[in-house]
Write a structure and sequence with these properties.
Blueprint lengths: L1 H47 L4 H8 L4 H8 L2 H6 L34 H20 L1 H9 L4 H13 L3 H24 L8 H28 L3 H32 L14 H21 L3 H26 L1
């Protein structure tokens, strides 16, 4: 009985092992078949895309990039690459293309910033330092007299006993800076050909001649009415205001001239039209305040001021508006 049971158990175990072996062989065949199909598909994709197998392996296995870079990117190849450069042996384009649209005059850009503006500004700064060093008391009185009346009286007494060279220096400084502002206004209207140092000095000479003629007419008018003191006092106020505004506006003119179109959101260079008007308005306000404060021949003073101070500049502004 035991022998018969042992015989059946051995037959069952043997049959179970055979079935497991057959199942494992079938699984192995299926795995091999799937691997063969995947390799065939990979080879077909590489062949269809005309990409080398190594490149396909590069894309397929990104973890091998570091190993591949160590294998190919050597220090010797770094030194060898400049020697393998190929240079052209002949020129392919020897001349200007007549059909290039950027060679036309309409595309030419004339720069506005010129070096002469900085040189003139530097000369004005040195002139101010010279005036302050040679005439320190007069320089101080001219600045302080705009805000306190008794400093202006001290300035007038000094002008009676001193020379007029200090007033001439101060007048030239103010006129030079004012003409720089006028030049920037003309340049803001896109008259780039007038942006030249010779044009500036020509304008300076013409302005000096016109102002000399205006002061000659004012002298004749005030002499006929025996109010010469009004002309001298108003002229000194005019010089004081021009000197102070020249010192204030010169750095502003430099910034606007070289960086006026570079501000974000607005081209400040286009706003130069208001600067000469603001300059003249400030000067007229100080002159009117001086006339009221002097209380000497108010009717004659206002007649002189309106006829020979306001009207000539209004005509000049009207001329610029209609001409430019």
């Amino acid at each position: 009985m035991l022998r018969f049971a042992f015989f059946f158990i051995s037959i069952f175990v043997t049959h179970l092992g055979v079935s497991q072996d057959s199942l494992s062989n079938e699984q192995q065949q299926q795995i091999d078949q799937s691997a063969t199909d995947e390799q065939a598909n990979f080879s077909v994709s590489s062949t269809n895309s005309d990409v080398p197998l190594s490149q396909s392996m590069w894309d397929y296995f990104p973890e091998n990039r570091f190993i591949d870079s160590l294998r190919e990117d050597t220090l010797i190849s770094r030194f060898r690459s400049p020697l393998e450069m190929q240079f052209p042996s002949e020129k392919t384009f020897n001349g200007i293309d007549p059909y290039d649209p950027y060679m036309l005059d309409s595309f030419a850009r004339n720069p506005r910033a010129k070096s002469w503006f900085f040189l003139v500004s530097l000369f004005v700064i040195l002139h101010v330092l010279y005036f302050k060093a040679v005439y320190p008391k007069q320089f101080q009185l001219r600045i302080q007299s705009l805000f306190r009346p008794y400093f202006f009286e001290d300035l007038m007494r000094e002008q009676q006993i001193g020379s007029f060279t200090g007033s001439l220096h101060a007048y030239v400084i103010g006129m030079m800076v004012f003409l720089l502002g006028v030049n920037m206004y003309v340049l803001s209207l896109d008259y780039t050909r007038l942006n030249h140092v010779l044009v500036y000095f020509l304008a300076f000479a013409i302005t000096a001649i016109l102002l000399f003629g205006l002061y000659a007419v004012q002298f004749v008018f005030t002499s006929s009415l025996e109010i010469n003191h009004i002309l001298s006092r108003q002229l000194q106020r005019q010089i004081n205001v021009n000197l102070l505004l020249a010192i204030v506006f010169l750095p502003l003119f430099l910034i606007l001239y070289y960086n006026g179109s570079g501000w974000v959101g607005e081209d400040l260079f286009k706003q130069m039209y208001y600067v000469p008007i603001f300059w003249l308005s400030i000067r007229f306000i100080f002159q009117i305040y001086g006339i009221i404060r002097d209380r000497q021949g108010l009717l004659s003073s206002f007649l002189y001021f309106c006829t020979f101070e306001i009207i000539p500049y209004l005509l000049l502004i009207k001329y610029f508006e209609t001409t430019l």
